[in-house]
Amino acid sequence: MASSFSLPPNLAANEASPEWMNKGDNAWQLTAATLVGLQSIPGLIILYGGSVKKKWAVNSAFMVLYAFACVVFCWAVWGYRLSFGERMVPFWGKPNVALDGVYLIGKPFLGKFPNATMVYFQGVFAAITLILIAGALLGRMNFYAWMMFVPLWLTFSYTLTAFSIWSPHGFLTKMGIIDYSGGYVIHLSSGIAGFTAAYWVGPRLTQDRQRFPPNNILLMLFGAGLLWMGWTGFNGGDPYEVSVDASLAVINTHICTAVSLLTWLLLDSVFFRKPSIIGAVQGMITGLVCITPAAGVVQGWAAIIMGLCSGSIPWFTMMVVHKRSEVLQKVDDTMAVFHTHAVAGSLGGILSGIFAVPKLNGLFYGAPGHYIGLFYGLADGRTHDGFRQIGVQLIGILFVVVVNVVSTSIICVVVQVFVPLRMSEEDMEIGDEAAHGEEAYAIWGDEEERLDPKYELPKTKAPGQVEMTWS
Fold it and tell me: In the predicted model, what is the mean pLDDT of residues 387-404?
């Protein structure tokens, strides 16, 4: 039977690497996408699994694993074309699949590599957004509700902001918003959506809210390290080419993150008299988030200032404002994604509007006169353009907040019609065993040994041997 598959018109039958494709760009883009994927699998699996109580380690890690798999499937089938396809309305693309062979080996809307590479790269960005939302819901959300929430939120929330801000046809794109790598689309969205969903799901048990120590801080640090290093692909991949802009984005990312971590650590040491590892990780995350919308369009000195701001302002909102705000206190945000992602993402977006360099914007956007930070607008006598950029950045924040509050609330209301959003009190007392019939740190053969009447604990121990404690 003859094959019905046909090659696109710009690709000859014997041409695996067409003239329009750059092999170096394609290789880097695939590598960057994989680095972003590793931030989630295994990075956030390990970070979440180590950051929660022992009884929630499996459930927290499983929420990440499920979200990644579900998003990758939904993204290829309909999510990508909703986000980057032909314009249907000013904030949404036309639904279509992205699995057709001819489409996948053709050119994307940007970049010198196949559509298949772009679908993969954007897919891991979509996946990590849902996984960040999970951070606000750890320790009580019904897993069946989470299974429904993920595809619905991807379809009716993420695709709207992605199309509006990143697609060439989006209305905020045309207004000239600066969001280099997802400060709005990913971090502000996940912070607001996570906080909103946490409101609808409800809080953890009282004893869990009052005391929720990490079950393995070293494991948590390992996950945090994967998150930090993976951000090299997160920000370095967004120019869609191997360029000086990609290199600038990478070094700015690491500079801002280091300064932010050190600033948070200093504040913890001064005000709490103890340098906190958990605080250092939070400072690391806020630095990564803050630089993301500006990574390749600001200078190194601006990255340092952004690190100082991201290590101090989210610290203040978390440690001072949160404790004094009745509204914030009512919502149980397990991993503080509102502060580390919504606040830091908004901060990064505003600072992008202040420090964005026109010539660097020209390298990234191809339109040097269309994007200018307020700092350079004042210096170059383009005050109106500088203030306009700040206005566009603020409009972007407002749009993302409204879309995510409304869409997330509607999705939660719909889901709870079919399944409870929150686990029962009895199941929350137990945790992983009740939710999945599994536990993170079970000792192999422990149950068999306890049931075996021949099994006896050793009555003596060798010199220097530590006596084992059984739980």
Answer: 97
Measured between alpha carbons, how far is residue 75 from residues 67, 96, 253, 375, 385 in Å? 12, 10, 27, 38, 37
Query: Would you state the torsion angle of the CA atoms of residues 48, 50, 54, 58, taken in this order, to the nearest 10 degrees?
Result: 50
Is 381 part of a structural domain of the chain? Answer: yes
CB 296 within 8 A of CB 360: yes
Burial class (CB in 10 A: 0-12, 13-18, 19+), 344: buried
Q: Identify the pLDDT of residue 13.
A: 54
Number of structural domains found in the chain: 1
DSSP state of 141: B
pLDDT score, position 4: 57
| Cα angle, residue 14 at apex, residues 12 and 15 outer, rounded to 5° | 65
| Rounded to 5°, angle at Cα 150 from 181 and 290 | 25
Q: Which domain covers residue 363, as residue numbers? A: 23-427
Cα separation, 180 vs 413, whole angstroms: 33
Residue 9, domain member (yes or no): no
- 256 assigned to some structural domain: yes
Helices (H) and strands (E) in the chain, counts: 25, 2
In this prediction the pTM is 0.90
Number of other residues whose CB lies within 10 A of the CB of residue 13: 6
Q: Which SS3 state, helix, strand or coil, does residue 87 take?
A: strand
Mean pLDDT, residues 34-53 taken together:
96
| pLDDT tens, residue by residue, 59-95 | 999 999 999 999 999 999 999 999 999 888 888 888 8
Residue 168 makes CB contacts below 8 A (sequence gap 6+) with 109, 110
129 torsion bin: left (phi>0), alpha (psi -120 to 50), beta (else): alpha
Cα(29)–Cα(470) distance, integer angstroms? 50
Q: Residue 243 domain-assigned?
A: yes
Question: Could you tell me the CATH number of the domain that includes residue 86?
Answer: 1.10.3430.10
